[in-house]
């Protein structure tokens, strides 16, 4: 249970500023699983530590305020964090300066190995976007 659930707080009100999280692509993915579902955790934030590696997935448009489960996965790739910080639902995810999606939640299916960072956006795979290993990633 989240200790903040009993308070009437919007996560947008809790953080007036956060640092930009930086990383680089460590693996590019090129497939979709339209029947794959994700259970989003209730917390709207996750700490991304330097050297953590997380998987980024696009699920299309989602109402993150009401959805705890989302279906359909377009895989972008894995990102190694080079400068950590606090990732918040609503943050934009950029690859080489281009916005590829907005974080709608986090799925812990593969923890402690890695976290699934679930984003809304145009459903194009990492390979389809022309993403390469070593490309820069920003979360802000």
Briefly characterize the structure:
With 140 residues, the protein is an all-beta fold. The chain has one helix at residues 11-14; strands spanning 21-28, 32-39, 45-48, 53-58, 69-83, 85-88, 92-95, 98-107, 116-120, 136-139.
Structural summary, described in words:
The structure is a single chain. The relative contact order is 0.31. Strand 8 and strand 9 (116-120) form a beta hairpin. The strands form two sheets. The protein has a seven-stranded mixed β-barrel. The protein has a two-stranded antiparallel sheet with strand order 3-6. It is built from one helix and ten strands. It has one helix spanning 11-14; strands spanning 21-28, 32-39, 45-48, 53-58, 69-83, 85-88, 92-95, 98-107, 116-120, 136-139. With 140 residues, it is mainly β. It is globular.
């Amino acid at each position: 249970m989240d200790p903040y659930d009993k308070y009437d707080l919007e996560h947008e009100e809790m953080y007036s500023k956060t640092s930009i999280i930086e990383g680089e692509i460590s693996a590019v993915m090129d497939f979709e699983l339209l029947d794959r579902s994700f259970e989003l955790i209730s917390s709207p934030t996750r700490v991304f530590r330097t050297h953590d590696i997380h998987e980024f997935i696009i699920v299309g448009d989602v109402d993150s305020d009401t959805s705890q489960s989302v279906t359909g996965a377009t895989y972008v790739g894995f990102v190694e964090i080079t400068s950590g910080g606090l990732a918040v639902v609503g943050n934009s995810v950029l690859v080489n300066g281009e916005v590829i999606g907005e974080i709608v939640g986090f799925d812990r299916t593969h923890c402690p190995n890695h976290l699934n960072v679930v984003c809304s956006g145009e459903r194009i795979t990492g390979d389809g976007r022309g993403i390469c290993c070593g490309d820069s990633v920003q979360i802000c």
